[in-house]
Amino acid sequence: MSALVTTVGLSPTSLPELPYVGNRVVRVGIMGGTFDPIHNGHLVAAEVAMGEVGLDVVLFMPAGSPAFKQDRHVSDPEDRYAMTLLATSDNPQFLTSRFEIARPGITYTAETLGQLHEHYGDACHLYFISGADAIASILTWKDADKLASLATFVGATRPGYDLESAQRGIEESGLDFDVRYLEIPALSISSSYLRERVSQGKSVRYLTPDAVVGYIEKRGLYRS
Ligand code: ATP
Ligand code: MG
To answer: Omega before 12 cis (within 30°)?
Structure first.
């Protein structure tokens, strides 16, 4: 079955078809973010999660209007989607979806995971990939109790990160979160860092794929 051919997610609102993996549940990583712009930290985290957790695919979902970023200018969703698509296009296991950017209003993770669960049903298990810091603050997210039941959480950490305090918070919450941690040495790369460099006329080559570097230049993004 050549399901992957139809999964690039070019259709406006649909979610990609899952790959055929035989008689078992498909393990789908969800990489949500603003991706303003996407960078090699995101891509390395997805790649490490694939290998360590044994994911079949990672679904990159640029956020429409992110809940935590109402206070700063966020680039046009179409630009963020285009950059994410460009950055993931050479990896058949990385899929990019327009699902969140096509949706009006603020993006809440619980809602998205709930809709993914509804759409794919029991054919897949969701693994939500995120920075460990973000996972430590999960308890403050909208519908934290619902979140716990919808996905396994995969937290990216820097080597030397204090896992215990993050884990303690989750345990104290009494909520049944399933969290795994991965060490990502490229974790200190951030979109803010790339935006700042571009606004100062500095190079972002090797911090994000060449196609994204070209797109930023062509569209004149982040020139402040
Ligand atoms: P900003 O600097 O604007 O906050 P960002 O680099 O944190 O951007 P986001 O789009 O906010 O990027 O992040 C999307 C997801 O990727 C979040 O879950 C975040 O924790 C995670 N993430 C961000 N940077 C890295 C990195 N270098 N390594 C692993 N995960 C990362
Ligand atoms: Mg961030």
So the answer is: no
Query: How far does residue 191's CA lie from ligand 2's centre (Å)?
Result: 7
Integer angstrom CA distances of residue 105 from 11, 63, 76, 77: 20, 10, 14, 13
The domain tally of the chain equals: 1
Using one digit for the tens of pLDDT, what is the confidence trace for 41-57?
999 999 999 999 999 99
Q: What is the CATH number of the domain that holds 44?
A: 3.40.50.620
Distance of CA 120 from the midpoint of ligand 1 (Å): 26
Q: And the tokens for 29?
A: 């990583």
* CA–CA dist 64, 35 (Å, integer): 11
Whether 207 is covered by a domain: the verdict is no
**Distance from residue 109's CA to the centre of ligand 1 (Å):** 15
Residue 4 forms part of a structural domain = no
Residue 11 confidence (pLDDT) above 90 = no
Ligand 1: which residues within 6 Å by Cβ?
33-36, 41-42, 45, 130-131, 134, 156, 184, 186-187, 189-192
Dump pLDDT digits (tens) for 53-96. 999 999 999 998 766 666 788 999 999 999 999 999 999 999 99
Q: Which two tokens mark 187?
A: 């974790």
Q: What angle do CA 130, 136, 140 make, to 5 degrees?
A: 100
Angle at 63 between CA 2 and CA 108, to 5 degrees: 110
Residue 15 lies in a domain: no
- Cα–Cα–Cα angle for 27, 32, 38, rounded to 5 degrees: 115
pTM (2 d.p.): 0.90
